[in-house]
Design a protein that fits this description.
The chain has about 290 residues and is an alpha/beta fold. About 30% of the residues lie in helices and about 30% in strands. Helix 6 (about 175-180) packs across helix 7. Bound molecules: 5-(1H-benzimidazol-2-yl)pentan-1-amine.
């Protein structure tokens, strides 16, 4: 261990470790589910770490939060009811609330410490909790989905950590089946779906499960996040049977028309061109994922 540096060593990326220079450790705790740490980095702002894995940094979180939200929500004409599984830092909520058509946002986060730590150290992420349309449920997303009526949501966003730890069940077939049930016909889901450089086997399994369950369309998109190992992370975008969803051509572009977005910081990463480009894959990934 080099003093003053945080190295992200994890079985999720064997043989490599991204490092950030540490100015000061701001919080260290152990919740019911995981170790939680916040530190001030020298060049990426504040950093949230769960069980030794970087979840967000102030400098590059926009690339992840904006894409995981606007790729699904800009692909359907009029999203009204949205569910977020995970996402306890609040960044996803901030992005969903840019859509003026949205009437209600449920968020189910298993770890209350993540919510509290975000409110204390990441105000520009936790701002998402201030939206009156938001209702927070602290608990297991698997159980929450079993409790909702069929066809409740237009969109479900699964902003999970990784299959090692509390989020493990969010990568398994029963969970995807309950997501499909909770969506209306032509509803959409977007899940955190690992890295094509590191996790092609995990992605292959997720794609095959999704193709069995989601009879609309199944797509993989990706973005660049410098503080995620391999510099990229991807998303599964699926729609249920019903009104066709063409994820590659946003029907509901987000721009200044949404008065909510006027009240907010302008988008730093997402735009309609990068939306379409996100679905273009390198050949080694296309062979596995299919187009
Ligand atoms: N909710 C935050 C999503 C990121 C979780 C941590 C993480 N960081 C990653 C880097 C590469 C591939 C998958 C990853 N998963």
């Amino acid at each position: 261990v080099i003093p003053g540096w945080f190295s992200e060593i994890s079985p999720m990326w064997p043989g490599e470790a991204h490092s950030l220079k540490v100015e000061k450790i701001l919080f260290q705790g152990k919740s019911e589910y995981q170790n939680v740490m916040v530190f001030q980095s020298s060049t990426y702002g504040k950093v949230l770490v769960l069980d030794g894995v970087i979840q967000v940094t102030e400098r590059d979180e926009c690339a992840y939060q904006e894409m995981i939200v606007h790729l699904p929500l800009c692909s359907i004409p009029n999203p009204k009811k949205v569910l977020v599984i995970g996402g306890g830092d609040g960044g996803v909520l901030r992005e969903v609330s840019r859509h003026s058509s949205v009437e209600h946002i449920d968020i189910c986060e298993i770890d209350a410490m993540v919510v509290d730590v975000s409110k204390q150290f990441f105000p520009e992420l936790a701002v998402g909790y201030g939206d009156p349309r938001v209702s927070l449920h602290v608990g297991d997303g698997v159980a929450f989905l079993k409790s909702v009526d069929e066809g409740t949501y237009d969109a479900i966003i699964v902003d999970s950590s990784d299959p090692i730890g509390p989020a493990q069940e969010l990568f398994e077939k029963p969970f995807f089946e309950s997501v499909a049930k909770a969506l209306r016909p032509g509803g959409v889901v977007c899940t955190q779906a690992e890295s094509i450089w590191l996790h092609m086997h995990i992605i292959e399994d997720i794609v095959s499960v999704c193709r069995q369950i989601f009879k609309g369309s199944v797509n993989y998109a990706w973005t660049t996040v410098p503080t995620y190992p391999s510099g990229v992370i991807g998303f599964m975008l699926c729609s249920t049977e019903g009104p066709q969803v063409d994820f590659r051509h946003p029907v509901n572009p987000i721009d200044e028309k949404d008065e909510q977005s006027k009240a907010k910081e302008p988008l730093k990463f997402y735009n309609s061109e990068i939306h379409s480009a996100a679905f273009c894959l390198p050949s080694f990934a296309k062979r596995v994922i299919g187009s």
